Amino acid sequence: RLTLVTVKGELRYPPGATLPGFIMVSFCREGENSKLPLRRVTEYSHERRSERSLALPELRLLPGRYRVQADDQEFEVEVPPTGLENLVLEREYAADEVEIVVRDAGTGEILPDQSLSWSGPGASGECRWDADRKVHLAALPTGRISFESWGRHGMRQVELERQAADGRLEIRLPRGQSIVVKLVCDGLVLPQSHSLQLAIEDEQGRPVRISSSVDDGETTTRHMDRPGHYRLGLVAAPPGYRVKQTIEFDLADDETMILTLELEPEP
Length: 267
What we know:
The chain is an all-beta fold. The chain folds into 3 domains: 5-90, Immunoglobulin-like; 97-173, Sandwich (Immunoglobulin-like), CATH 2.60.40.10; 177-265, Immunoglobulin-like, CATH 2.60.40.10. 0% of the residues lie in helices and 56% in strands. A hairpin with a 4-residue loop joins strand 14 (143-151) and strand 15. The radius of gyration is 24 Å and the shape is extended.
């Protein structure tokens, strides 16, 4: 009779590497008997074990040999009948992975924690960096590469030419433009929820695509693709309120504009 056993452990990174915010881990049991339960299990984990490791999700598995996928790297693991209480998987970096420094194009300051996606000749991917460590790793092709970042300072885009497969790359990202919106009724700031939907139109009255948002409970930040003349309202006001008056504003290149949208109680 086959009995499920417990598997615990960690995914350990090289010294100086930036840990991702989360990892996806899949255990696939080798063998073709599809009648066996839990042949393949996939879970996520974001718990840090140490400065160099993330905890693997705690799983209940059948004993046997498994192929394990963890943060895009494959391992082979033997799960004994007694289970594994301290499995350690060593995450390694390939020779073509690159140290990247990401700076603000205007000030030259290293940008705070954000996510970064890229696309280049025949490849694309995502990577992360951390303001404290100042460097992160990613596999990049040579040639023309487009970078797009998302984070608390908005969406930023830039293209650059990577001439040689060297081990270090510096990216300078432009600031971009955004609006910070407060909802106010009778001088009081109303709390906001993640479900709040702003209605933004351009000067031709067309709805504007919103790139991303950051909500902190009192303000909502929306990152705009381009400068221009806009009109701001709400798709739906919070329960019990209505918009007193929409706002028209001109947003300049690389500008962050703070806007107050006046609401009033519904009669």
